[in-house]
Amino acid sequence: MAAVVLIYQQLENSILTPKIQGKAVNISPFFIIVSVTLFGALLGVLGALTAVPLAAMIQILMQELTKARREKVAEAKAAVESAAPA
After folding, report:
1. Percentage of the chain with pLDDT > 90?
2. What's the whole-number mean pLDDT along residues 44-55?
3. Residue 80 belongs to what H/E stretch?
4. For the chain, is the Cβ count within 10 Å smaller at the N or the C terminus?
5. Residue of 23, 19, 55 whose CA lies nearest to 36
6. Can you give the residue range of the structural domain that contains 24?
């Protein structure tokens, strides 16, 4: 019985939880596992508990910081595609 519980817990913690949290905050499950490990190692239990919201905050911050650059690239790409002969 203990083996079944251990296997279930490992599957839930390694596969299921990162996928659910990733869909909830639109972050890759890989980055969720990395952020929980990293923040947990740096800040202990408190870091592990706040890892997913902090990772989401960092992702949003990076998107806002690079928004203008992404818009310029999209405009340049559209200009090149419209200027190219069909």
Report:
1. 38
2. 91
3. helix 67-83
4. C
5. 55
6. 2-83
Q: What is the pLDDT of residues 50-81, one digit of tens each?
A: 998 999 899 889 989 999 999 999 999 999 98
In terms of pTM, does the model score above 0.70?
no
* pLDDT of 30: 86
The amino acid at 19: K
- Rounded alpha-carbon distances, angstroms, from residue 37 to 31, 64, 72, 81: 10, 25, 35, 43
DSSP 66: T
What's the Cα-to-Cα distance from 6 to each of 15, 16, 36, 48, 69, rounded to whole Å?
A: 14, 14, 20, 20, 47
Q: Total domain count for the chain?
A: 1
The C-alpha atoms of residue 80 and residue 60 are separated, in whole angstroms, by 29
